[in-house]
Inverse folding.
């Protein structure tokens, strides 16, 4: 429900993140990326540019990879989100995508990594047998300043192969 | 940066959305995919007092065949839906070919065709596509509704014929006729970047294989999408070969008014426009000769 205040109009929202339902009161102007990081302390979702270009903030919203910096938390009311914290399922294991990134040296500083993982999770769910060109196309919306992408591409090929088995 | 404070209303019905817009006019903005609006809000270049979220209006999304030869696309239809839609691929090959050039998959999962056309970025692909296809756009408000021809809709950079109380609810495009071909090509610095120049064209053939009608439109070639009238007219009644595409390309270069920027001078844009026009016309003609 909206309460009327000049500065901080707020809304009550219920949102499911990584299978857990959360109920919070949020300011209308709170970005979904900041809601995840600050209100839910799920700081795995990174913030680089806040204008949709870098991809660091990519999450899975109702099954589709989207920029969390270009949505408001209020828009997530009633929706389901997966963040990098929910990728592996538990704290003991890595998801095959994460394991492949580690083995292939697909990350250095790791700033871009959560966004890349969430982008590629959605991509591989839809395209289980990608060729290299498709992987590069899928990665086009995620900037990495460290790796030069080659090792990320190799990690994705390895992960795709393992996920098919 | 973070957006300035605003009021947010998730629309429950089209009527409610239109009433709110009528009451608040330019102080209010519709929020569709947010892929153009939210970046400008984050930079505080836009500070609406009220955001009317139209995402809940699912009736405004979807692709429909209308009559025998046209297709209606709801304003809230996302790029990704269009990319996956078999009817769109068959009936609107020009639009289909342009989709992968728009931003990245994550942006296309949210961005809507209505938000794109209402935003009217001169560098954007869709306005040129809608102009090349001579589509029409449906505007609704509490006062009623009207259909606006594409040629009347785009008024310049980030400016359209929509009144402050109007919402764009639908786009109607003619389905590709038999014996026609289409082609979209663009040059951008990187995959997903806005075009330095983009060219959209359609070629429809007569029974003897000559061109009955051709239409050429460009993006990022002026302060709005540009329909290349003279170049398009030059092809009617002719059999399209190298001389015809070269002549049309030269006409296009005279009809556009690119702005130039740090990545591409005006001369370079003009040069690219000529090269792409000749290539796209050749391809569209070949596709038409093959029957698709
Ligand atoms: C990194 C990045 C790269 C991009 N690259 C490209 C590119 O290469 N080519 C390209 O074309 N675009 C590009 N875009 C922009 C993208 O296509 C946007 O999605 C699109 O321009 C706007 O659609 P939207 O649904 O997100 O609209 P919004 O951002 O929600 O709205 C845009 C404007 O239109 C108004 N509006 C929205 N819907 C309606 C309606 N139904 N009636 C009336 N007014 C309405 C809003 O109030 C707002 O003023 C890019 C965006 C990003 C972030
Ligand atoms: S922080 Fe969202 S795309 Fe860069
Ligand atoms: S690993 Fe440093 S930005 Fe990608």
């Amino acid at each position: 429900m909206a309460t009327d205040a000049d500065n901080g109009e707020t809304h009550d929202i219920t949102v499911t993140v990584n299978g857990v339902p959360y109920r919070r009161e949020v300011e209308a102007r709170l970005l979904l990326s900041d809601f995840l990081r600050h209100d839910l302390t799920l700081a795995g979702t990174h913030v680089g540019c806040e204008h949709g270009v870098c991809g660091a903030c990519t999450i899975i919203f109702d099954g589709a990879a989207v920029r969390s910096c270009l949505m408001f938390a209020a828009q997530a009311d009633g929706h389901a989100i997966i963040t990098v914290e929910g990728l592996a399922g538990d704290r003991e294991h890595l998801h095959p995508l994460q394991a492949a990134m580690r083995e292939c040296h697909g990350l250095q500083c790791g700033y871009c990594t959560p966004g890349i993982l969430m982008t590629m999770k959605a991509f591989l769910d839809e395209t289980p047998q990608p060729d290299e060109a498709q992987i590069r196309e899928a990665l086009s919306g995620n900037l990495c300043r460290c790796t030069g992408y080659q090792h990320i591409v190799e990690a994705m090929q390895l992960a795709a192969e393992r996920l098919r088995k | 940066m973070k957006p300035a404070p605003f009021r947010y209303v998730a629309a429950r019905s089209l009527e409610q959305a239109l009433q709110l817009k009528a009451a608040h006019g330019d102080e209010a903005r519709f929020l569709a995919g947010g892929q153009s609006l939210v970046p400008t809000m984050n930079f505080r270049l836009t500070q609406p007092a009220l955001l009317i979220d139209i995402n809940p209006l699912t009736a405004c999304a979807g692709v429909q065949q209308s009559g025998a030869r046209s297709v209606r696309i709801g304003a809230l239809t996302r790029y990704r839906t269009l990319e996956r839609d078999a009817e769109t691929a068959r009936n609107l090959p020009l639009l289909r070919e342009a989709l992968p050039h728009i931003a990245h998959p994550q942006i296309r999962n949210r961005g809507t065709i209505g938000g794109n056309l209402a935003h009217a970025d001169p560098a954007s692909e869709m306005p040129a596509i809608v102009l090349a296809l001579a589509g029409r756009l449906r505007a609704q408000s509490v006062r009623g509704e009207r259909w606006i021809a594409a040629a009347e809709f785009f008024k310049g950079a980030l400016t359209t014929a929509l009144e402050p109380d109007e919402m764009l609810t639908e786009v109607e495009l003619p389905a590709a006729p038999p014996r026609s071909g289409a082609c979209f090509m663009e040059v951008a610095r990187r995959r997903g970047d806005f075009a330095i120049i983009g060219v959209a064209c359609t070629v429809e053939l007569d029974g003897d294989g000559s061109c009955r009608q051709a239409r050429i439109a460009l993006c990022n070639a002026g302060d709005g999408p540009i329909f290349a009238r003279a170049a398009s007219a030059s092809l009617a009644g002719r059999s399209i070969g190298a001389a015809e595409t070269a002549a049309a390309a030269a006409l296009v270069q005279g009809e556009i008014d690119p702005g130039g920027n740090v990545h591409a001078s005006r001369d370079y844009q003009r040069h690219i426009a000529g090269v792409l026009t000749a290539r796209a016309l050749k391809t569209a003609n070949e596709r038409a000769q093959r029957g698709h």
About this structure: The interface with chain B takes residues 2, 4, 6-9, 11, 27-29, 31, 34, 50-52, 55, 58, 64-67, 69-72, 74-75, 77, 119, 123, 137-138, 140-141 of chain A (CB under 8 Å). Confidence is low (pLDDT under 50) at residues 1-6 of chain A.
